[in-house]
Design goal:
Rossmann fold; 6-stranded mixed sheet; ATP-binding cassette, sub-family C (CFTR/MRP), member 8b
Length: 1533
């Protein structure tokens, strides 16, 4: 087993027990000691020659080097040199171990057996350090020392090997094999050195090869150094040390992590993938998806093969651990003298490999080295696979974006591909592909690992091992079934989650309207009902998750029980009995085998999902996009070819008369869909350098005409001429056209960046545009002025501000043509006039720009040089004002009671925007309030208070059950293993006792031990089930409680919360954060508690077995503490950075799709593609650093685990020599020690994950503590008189209100008396307090003083629900609620969510709102579907539906807040008359920008700075020439 201690411990180089040790009668080279001494010479030479250079002369040498020291100039054979040096070190360690073991058979110590090897290790380390310094300093001439060293070492080892062979020492002697291997290694290193000389030509060659640093390293912004560092740093991630430790001092941001290396950038990998795709497009195209896989293999196959190779090596090394444990326990439990005795030749002993491996200490060291190598190769496999997956993801994302840029908006508008689907494609499907690449090595390695494990188990346990493996294989389909059900449950849950988020988003978008109409309880009930359905699916998901956790824990216990029971039954009467070596060796093997057996089903399931995603992602999507683009272009090309001669003749004939025409459309038919054309018989011309106005009623096709000219609509026939140049594809010929859409599209950037839009800054013009659009007062109110980031879709701005910034962007561009689509709709009369006169008539006209303006403001028609009048999708007339004045006058006189209009299904893109609310948390593009800067600076310790909040929500019943079940389960697991150790130790003790008594009958009774073992295992299986159920049910309880509290709080929260908090932030609490609480925290909590208890159990068991381990535990614990401390901070920052960059990436996709028309109109496709590459690279560099940080942690924890195993093994062996420690306990301790590294990894990783996930609980908890509105009143609903308010009399007495207690009053000392049934008009400049006046009637503001009395009741005394339910209001921004797949929302629901009105009442309201013809034309009528944002209706039609909604309610008081801003003047005039008629006996308060709309009011109120400036009848105020109202009226004409 082990060497016997010698009596004489005299220390001598050649030993003192052999008188012939120093004799050289037969020649020096025939003396074994001399041969070993000769091998010292090269090592001494290297040490003495390199140390002065390294420590004395390096400074002067490096001063001559002109290359920065942070660069790595790898010499030829760099990686091979490092690999050979590492192998050399391992062989030298084996030589030392062999020398020490051989020396144990001598009477004195022979230093020559292991001292040369020790010097060789020192020399090898010195050589690689020396080489590294020369390489990083690019001073290759000093490599001459290494050349000499490798030559001398190769010669000495070759001589030694030859002499061994001469004396008959062969392969049976281990030292012979080691010497030959060393000679080979030194020879290979010599070859590497010669290769460097020949390649670099640096010695005797006259012209050395000039070498430059890699392009990446010339850019000091590249900080991801994994591709450039040496092999040791690559394998141990030492280059991350500085990065990880610096993260603890300051936050990690994009500047900290720098740029990606060129080979990892999205553009590089996109080009690589594109080349691979192009290579597959041969003369005979491949069918199915085979060509895709061939392209992926060509582009990214080589690193995947490398990853699979690393995984194979790691798995093979993984089996060394159980075999070594079995060997150690076997040698401890019995005196082993079966190995061959050593042979004495050349004066020293030579041992065989069997005798070498019979030493327990050798096995401990071998186990340690195997663990180091196994973990290193495993992490290298993970790294290469994930890095390749990230590269593939970047390439696919870039390819998708390039397709999006060429998409036909009309195809998307009909729902073929929505923004949410594309975001899901980018966020989810590409990640599936990435993880498929990560799983690929598992697919290849797991079958081999399973076969190897079963064979080794069979060698230890015989047939019983096959029976145990069969049990697991039989149960594998059950695992696959559970995994499949789990995936289906998750998919079903996601459907309901998406539905809940849609409803929540609708609730948040329309929260102001819902509160004003007291409909919030209706929508809250709808969300709660969907949440209940979601929770039912979550319960199913939790059940299958519990089953999965249970089976992962219980099946190994059952299999071990069956294996040992069968083994005892079959071999109890033979020598092949159950021993500690067999038990714990097989147990360690079983731990290795269980992982691939369990994961194989999950890996196969994930692989199938990835294959499906590839089929969806690559061929169908790519080909679908291509088809849409190609069909569109081909159609245009066919039209051109068909009519080319005719068009050419027409152009030639009209060339002279059309010289002043900028845009001309002849006989154009355009459509958004494949059905009937939206625009018909379009014959228009737009003169050069003049102002062209397009007018017409709501829904007549004005905006569509602009988009048709830009090429965004599908052209059925006709031709479009830009500057008299006929183009088959408009995009290829026309230049940039600044386009301001009807609904403004803004970037999530600063105000300045939105206006400049990547143009060269021109301070003078910038100031002119700001002044023209009256933006300076608004900019002054922003926190950082024009450097303020305006958020997603300009969420922090008002509608008018967004509109003016959009117009300012168009005005700032210095191009020939400008398109403006209804830019005045959200502006008051003064802003409209200023923009018209100063911006369009002055700024643009002076520059001779061609301006095409869509507008409803007919008072500006006299300024137009050319007018195009639209009606029902065609051009009614065009010409100057005089040409069409007769027709316009006649149109004003017609249809005084109703307007018959055709309904045009307008696409979601026709207004250049999309409602892109997310279907699930992964496609969420909303901006989190924890923005990148705030998130990265939010660095605290583990949020234990949030953890307490989470556990408190679990309740008093589940929490104790969770804790007790976990403790009981792991205590029982330890008890099972302890019983196994006791059982096997008793078997050995019985055998020894029988041997001492010379008994032939050595039969041992296992029955009592087996019964206890069975009972413990059965109880353990039950506790596994209880624990898994307790964790998941705790998570469900917390999910239900927190979401219910959050929804209740949000619905009751004051409007101030929604005005100061972006919608996306609140929605994120319901999406990403709720999803984390629902599905991720329970899993993380279970894994964290399990790994922590397992680690504590392992350390406890090892300490019990070998108390000496406690001495080494302290430094290891300190190392673990600092590693986890630094890693947690860096990991948290990197996870948040990855999430933030992914959010920015998805936001860029969303913004691009929303603004696709604007981007293409401006011709900024390349700019946005470049921005996409920046966002993709930022996300990928974050992912790569996070992945490298995880590898950094795991390598270090694995190395600490290896040291734990080494210390435990050495301590156990030594303890066995000193005392009678049972072999069973030694096996138990080593088996537990082997798993410590895994437990440590999972503890730290899950602790970091839990820290990030508890941030979700903290954010949700923060919102839950929001102070709600005061819904109670001094009166109860029963005390309010029936039918109140009956008359509609409003008395306002000295009223002052404010939005928040921290803000100044917005209304000051308002006094007013509105008599019953009167029509009151309110006007004033923007910010004068008009809307605040209306909101005060609904108690939406804080009252400082005064009161509002309606029909004799102070509204402050009324319950809030009762008050708001008695009024009707029409807001400026029209809101329609959408339909969904699970619970359709029809048009009738938008008119009457309370379901109180009959269909007849709804039709009457639609008739009053002039919408009856439109609704009747829809399929389904009142049951017609409403698309996202109501985009299947025009802006004006949506506003009319809101009017109809108010008519349905028939309240005594109606407030109209800018209700007709998006309606043409003719329709508005009719509606005003209808309102006056329908609400003749009711009080109507109208707030208007267009002053002429309130001329028919009974009373006019003019407001300024929150106070009433003028209050009188309109005729009286008009007679006062100096009145503000008369000035407004004059300006509005």
């Amino acid at each position: 087993m082990m060497f016997t201690p010698v009596s004489n411990s005299t220390l001598s180089f050649c030993g003192s027990d052999n008188s012939s040790a120093y004799k050289v009668d037969n020649g020096l080279l025939n003396n074994g000691c001399f041969l070993d001494a000769l091998g010292v010479v090269p090592h001494v030479f290297l040490l003495f020659s390199t140390f002065p250079i390294l420590f004395i002369g390096w400074g002067s040498q490096s001063s001559k080097v002109h290359i920065h020291h942070s660069t790595w100039l790898h010499f030829p054979g760099h990686n091979f040199r490092w690999l050979l040096t590492i192998v050399l070190l391992l062989v030298l360690v084996c030589e030392i171990a062999e020398g020490i073991v051989s020396d144990g058979f001598n009477q004195s110590r022979h230093l020559h057996l292991y001292m040369p090897a020790g010097l060789g290790i020192l020399a090898a380390i010195t050589s690689i350090v020396y080489y590294h310094n020369i390489e990083t300093s690019n001073f290759p001439k000093l490599l001459i020392a290494l050349l000499i060293y490798w030559t001398l070492a190769f010669i000495t080892k070759t001589i030694k090997f030859a002499k061994y062979d001469d004396h008959g020492i062969g392969l049976r002697q281990l030292r012979f094999c080691i010497t030959g291997l060393l000679a080979l290694l030194y020879g290979l290193l010599l070859g590497v050195e010669v290769n460097v000389i020949l390649r670099r030509r640096y010695m005797w060659f006259p012209c050395p090869t000039e070498v430059k640093p890699p392009d990446d390293l010339q850019d000091l912004g590249v900080r991801f150094q994994q591709p450039f560092v040496n092999l040791l740093s690559k394998s141990t991630y030492c280059w991350m040390n500085t990065f990880i430790t610096s993260a603890h001092k300051r936050p990690i941001d994009l500047k900290t992590i720098g740029k990606l290396p060129i080979s990892m950038r999205a553009l590089t990998n996109f080009q690589r993938l594109r080349k691979a795709f192009d290579a597959q497009k041969g003369p005979v195209p491949l069918k199915g998806s085979r060509w895709i896989w061939l392209a992926l293999r060509q582009a990214f196959g080589r690193p995947l093969v490398l990853s699979i190779t690393f995984r194979f090596i790691a798995d093979l090394l993984g089996f060394v651990g159980p075999l070594c444990i079995s060997g150690i326990v076997h040698h401890i439990s019995s005196d082993n003298h079966s190995a061959l005795p050593p042979v004495k030749l050349l004066g020293v002993h030579f041992i065989s490999s069997e005798a070498f491996l019979a030493n327990a200490y050798v096995l401990a060291v071998l186990l340690f080295l195997a663990l180091l190598l196994q973990r290193t190769f495993l992490q290298a496999s993970y790294y290469v696979a994930i890095e390749t997956g990230i590269k593939l993801r970047a390439a696919i994302q870039t390819k998708i974006y390039h397709k999006i840029m060429r998409l036909c908006t009309s195809n998307m508008s009909m729902g073929d591909m929505t923004t949410a689907q594309i975001c899901s494609l980018v966020a989810r499907d590409t990640n599936h592909l990435m993880w498929f690449f990560f799983l690929c090595p598992n697919l290849w390695a797991m079958p081999v690992q399973i076969v190897m494990g079963v064979l080794l188990l069979y060698s230890l346990l015989g047939v019983s091992a096959l029976i145990g493996a069969t049990v697991i294989v039989v149960l594998a389909p059950l695992q696959y079934f559970v995994a499949t059900r789990l995936s289906r449950a998750q998919k079903s849950t996601l459907e309901h989650t998406g539905e809940r988020l849609k409803k929540t988003n609708e609730l948040l978008r329309g929260i102001k309207l819902l509160k004003l109409y007291t409909w919030e309880h209706i929508f809250r009930s709808s969300v709660e009902e969907t949440r209940r359905q979601e929770l039912r699916k979550l319960r199913t998901f939790a059940l299958y998750t519990s089953l999965s956790i249970f089976m992962n824990a219980a099946i190994p216990i059952a299999a071990v029980l069956i294996i040992f029971a069968v083994h005892v039954h079959m071999h109890s009467a033979t020598d092949f009995d159950l021993s500690p070596a067999v038990a714990f060796g097989s147990l360690s093997l079983f731990h290795i085998l269980v992982t691939p057996l369990f994961l194989l089903s999950s890996v196969l399931h994930s692989t199938v999902k990835a294959l499906v995603r590839v089929l969806v992602l690559c061929p169908q999507y790519a080909l679908q996009l291509q088809a849409k683009i190609v069909n569109r272009k081909n159609k245009a090309k066919q039209d051109v070819n068909r009519n080319f001669e005719q068009q050419d003749q027409e152009l030639t004939a009209s060339a002279n008369q059309d010289e002043d025409v900028c845009i001309k459309i002849v006989n154009g038919y355009f459509t958004w869909t494949q059905g009937c054309p939206t625009l018909t018989s379009i014959d228009i011309k737009v003169p050069f350098g003049e102002l062209t106005m397009i007018v017409g009623q709501v829904g007549c096709g004005k905006s569509s005409l602009l988009l048709a000219a830009l090429g965004e609509m599908q052209k059925i026939s006709g031709n479009i001429t830009w500057k008299s140049i006929l183009t088959a594809c408009v995009f290829r010929k026309r230049g940039s056209v600044p386009y301001a859409s009807q609904r403004p599209w803004l970037l999530n950037a600063t105000v300045e960046e939105n206006i400049l839009f990547d143009m060269v800054p021109n301070e003078k013009r910038y100031k002119e545009v700001i002044e023209v659009c009256q933006l300076q007062p608004d900019i002054d109110t922003l926190p950082q002025g024009d450097q303020t980031v305006i958020g997603e879709r300009g969420i922090i701005l008002s509608g008018g501000q967004r509109q003016r910034i959009s117009v300012a962007r168009a005005l700032y561009q210095q191009t020939n043509v400008v398109f403006l689509d209804d830019p005045f709709s959200a502006l008051d009369i003064h802003l409209s006039d200023h923009l018209m006169h100063e911006g369009i008539l002055k700024l643009l006209r002076q520059e001779k720009r061609t301006v095409v303006l869509v507008t409803h403001k007919l008072q500006y028609l006299p300024h137009a040089d050319w007018i195009i009048a639209m009606r029902d999708g065609t051009v009614q007339t065009q010409g100057t004002l005089k040409d069409i004045q007769t027709l316009m006058n006649r149109q004003d006189k017609e249809n005084t009671t109703e307007l018959k209009r055709k309904s045009f299904r307008r696409p979601m893109y026709s207004t250049d925007t999309l409602a892109t609310e997310d279907e699930d948390e992964e496609s969420s593009t909303s901006t989190d309030e924890d923005s990148l800067r705030a998130e990265l600076h939010h660095r605290t310790t583990i949020p234990w208070s949030s953890f307490a909040t989470y556990l408190h929500a679990a309740g008093l019943l589940l929490l104790p059950l969770l804790v007790l079940s976990q403790l009981s389960k792991h205590s029982l697991m330890v008890a099972i293993d302890f019983w196994l150790a006791h059982w096997t130790s008793r078997v050995i003790a019985a055998q020894i006792e029988s041997a001492e008594r010379n008994c032939t009958d050595t039969k041992f009774s296992h029955s009592s031990y087996l019964q206890v073992f069975c009972g413990l295992c059965a109880l353990g299986i039950v506790l596994c089930l209880v624990t898994s159920l307790a964790v998941e049910w705790t998570g469900l309880r917390v999910s239900r409680e927190l979401h219910c509290s959050l929804l209740h709080t949000i619905v009751l929260a004051p409007m101030r919360l929604f005005e100061t908090t972006p919608l996306g932030n609140i929605l994120n609490r319901f999406s990403a954060d709720t999803n984390t609480i629902d599905q991720h925290i329970p899993v993380t909590l279970e894994c964290l508690s399990r790994s922590t208890l397992l680690c504590v159990s392992a350390v406890g068991v090892i300490s019990y077995v070998t108390p000496l381990f406690l001495i080494a535990l302290l430094p290891l614990a300190v190392a673990c503490y600092f590693i986890q401390k630094y890693f947690r901070v860096a990991s948290r920052d990197l996870q948040q950075l990855e999430d933030s960059t992914e959010m920015l990436l998805l936001s860029h996709y969303s913004q691009t799709i929303e603004g696709l028309t604007t981007i293409r109109a401006f011709r900024h496709e390349q700019r946005f593609k470049k921005k996409l590459l920046e966002h993709t690279d930022a996300n990928n560099i974050s992912s790569l650093f996070l992945m490298a940080a995880n590898r950094w942690l795991e390598v270090r924890m694995e190395y600490i685990g290896a040291f734990v195993v080494l210390i435990a093994a050495v301590a156990s062996i030594s303890n066995t020599l000193c005392s009678q420690l049972s072999a069973g306990l030694v096996g138990l301790g080593l088996t537990y020690a082997l798993m410590v590294s895994n437990y440590l990894n999972w503890i730290v990783r899950n602790l970091a994950d839990m820290e990030v996930q508890l941030g979700c609980v903290k954010r949700v908890s923060g919102l839950i503590h929001t102070q709600p509105e005061n819904y109670d009143g001094l009166m109860t609903p029963a005390q309010v008189p029936a039918g109140w308010p009956k008359y509609g009399e409003i008395q306002i007495k000295n009223l002052s209100v404010r939005y928040d207690s921290s803000l100044k009053p917005v209304l000051r000392h308002i006094n007013s008396h509105i008599r019953p049934g009167k029509k009151v008009g309110i006007c004033g400049r923007t910010g004068s307090g008009k809307s605040s006046f209306s909101l005060a009637l609904f108690r939406m503001l804080d009252t400082i003083e005064g009161q509002i009395v309606i029909d004799g009741i102070d509204i402050a005394k009324l319950p809030l629900q009762t008050l708001r339910s008695k009024f009707s209001i029409i807001l400026q921004d029209p809101i329609l609620f959408i339909c969904s797949s699970l619970s359709p929302v029809f048009l009738s629901f938008n008119l009457d969510p309370e379901r109180k009105a009959t269909d007849q009442m709804l039709w009457e309201a639609l008739e009053i709102a002039q919408l009856m013809p439109v609704v009747k034309a829809l399929p389904g009528g009142l049951d017609a579907m409403v698309t996202e944002g109501g985009e299947n209706f025009s802006q004006g039609q949506r506003q009319l539906f809101c009017l109809a909604r108010a008519f349905v309610r028939k309240s005594s008081i109606l407030i109209m807040d800018e209700a007709t801003a998006s309606i043409d003047m003719a329709t508005e005039s009719i509606l005003q008359k209808v309102v006056m008629t329908a609400f003749a006996d009711r009080t109507v308060v109208t707030i208007a920008h267009r002053v002429h709309t309130i001329l028919g009011s009974d009373v006019v109120i003019v407001m300024k700075h929150g106070a009433i400036l003028e209050y009188n009848e309109p005729d009286v105020l008009l007679e006062q020439k100096d009145s503000v109202f008369s000035a407004f009226v004059r300006a509005d004409k």
